[in-house]
């Protein structure tokens, strides 16, 4: 049964369309990620979903309650729907424990105490309860912000690129922990990010947003093997245009390098990466530059090399 839904939500700023008839249906407890480049409409989407910004048209529903926009409601926003963004939104002059307790000030003190204890425990923050936010790492501060948002047990959690300020190690740990916590609590989650890898670590289903419209929806396998557009394909890796063919592309990992063949190029750049060397190869005909993986680390700048690929790995992509 659909629980949280956006129905043909559009948003236009002056003349700029940020969202175009965006629709989304989530079951209770479902987690979904929306991935799109900067400016594709992600933040507008979440602010409208939270009732914090007026849409130009369309509706947002939580169960049988319509989510009203700021112009329809005296105090904008809902306790049931919490929005977290990349800045931690913590009070820097109060402790971690007080920060988490803040949304519960009007609640019964007994309940407040037990709720805060539970969150400190769940988020592994008990040791830091007396500290000020600035004395925690970025990852820990973002955890506190999320614990604070969950204090009032919201039905829906909206995450707007919440990991952008974190380093890779902090980020992976937090995503892993959050996934478990949110599944346990049965919270319905919409996570928006420009980073497809992050999205796939947190959720199974991903919506790809381009210029305010959904261009594709699927799990990682479907999106990786059958991207519909160049934009979707490029979220996974660079793609190389095959000369003299129409809308046909090949990925750097799907190109093999040989000493003979038909498609000739020479290496113009070489980088040592963790699992392979990444090469830039200028094709002899046409001068197109390809990005190619060299897992054997065999080729150097200046080398002549022939490029091979299998037909079944060719991606047919529209723009
Ligand atoms: P994202 O979060 O994916 O970067 P946004 O929702 O912030 O995307 O923005 C979508 C589009 O709307 C962008 O082109 C942006 O420039 C425009 N936009 C966002 N906020 C405003 C605003 N307050 N006034 C005018 N244009 C805006
Ligand atoms: Mg944004």
UniProtKB/TrEMBL annotation:
InterPro entries per record: AAA+_ATPase (IPR003593), ABC_SmlMolc_Importer (IPR050093), ABC_transporter-like_ATP-bd (IPR003439), ABC_transporter-like_CS (IPR017871), Mo/tungstate-bd_C_term_dom (IPR008995), P-loop_NTPase (IPR027417), Transp-assoc_OB_typ2 (IPR013611)
Name of the molecule in the record: ABC transporter ATP-binding protein
Positions of the ABC transporter domain: 4-236
Alphabetized UniProt keyword annotations: ATP-binding, Nucleotide-binding, Transport
Organism: Algoriphagus oliviformis
Gene Ontology MF terms in the entry: ATP binding
SUPFAM superfamilies found in the cross-reference section: MOP-like, P-loop containing nucleoside triphosphate hydrolases
Superkingdom classification of source: Bacteria
């Amino acid at each position: 049964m659909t629980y949280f839904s956006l129905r043909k939500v559009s948003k236009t700023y002056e003349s700029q369309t940020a969202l175009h008839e965006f629709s989304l249906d989530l079951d209770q407890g479902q987690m979904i990620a929306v991935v799109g480049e900067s400016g594709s409409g992600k933040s507008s989407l979440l602010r409208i979903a939270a009732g914090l910004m007026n849409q130009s048209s369309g509706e947002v529903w939580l169960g049988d309650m319509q989510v009203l926009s700021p112009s329809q409601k005296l105090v904008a926003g809902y306790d049931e729907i919490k929005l977290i963004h990349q800045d931690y939104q913590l009070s820097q002059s109060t402790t971690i424990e007080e920060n988490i307790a803040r949304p519960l000030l009007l609640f019964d003190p007994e309940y407040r105490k037990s709720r805060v204890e539970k969150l400190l425990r769940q988020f592994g923050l008990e040791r830091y309860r007396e500290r000020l936010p600035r004395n925690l790492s970025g990852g820990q501060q973002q955890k506190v912000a999320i614990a604070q948002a969950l204090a009032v047990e919201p039905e829906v959690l909206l995450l707007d690129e919440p990991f952008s300020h974190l380093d890779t190690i902090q980020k992976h740990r937090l995503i892993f922990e959050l996934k478990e916590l949110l599944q346990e609590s049965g919270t319905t989650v919409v996570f928006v990010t420009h980073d497809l890898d992050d999205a796939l670590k947190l959720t199974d289903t991903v919506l790809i947003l381009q210029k305010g419209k959904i261009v594709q929806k699927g799990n990682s396998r479907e999106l990786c093997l059958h991207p519909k557009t160049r934009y979707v394909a490029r979220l996974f890796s660079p793609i190389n245009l095959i000369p003299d063919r129409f809308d046909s592309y090949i990925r750097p990992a799907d190109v093999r390098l040989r000493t003979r063949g038909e498609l000739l190029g020479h290496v113009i750049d070489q980088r040592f990466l963790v699992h392979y060397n990444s090469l830039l190869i200028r094709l002899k005909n046409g001068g197109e530059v390809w990005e190619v993986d060299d897992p054997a680390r065999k080729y150097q700048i200046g080398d002549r090399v022939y490029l091979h690929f299998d037909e079944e790995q060719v991606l047919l992509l529209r723009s």
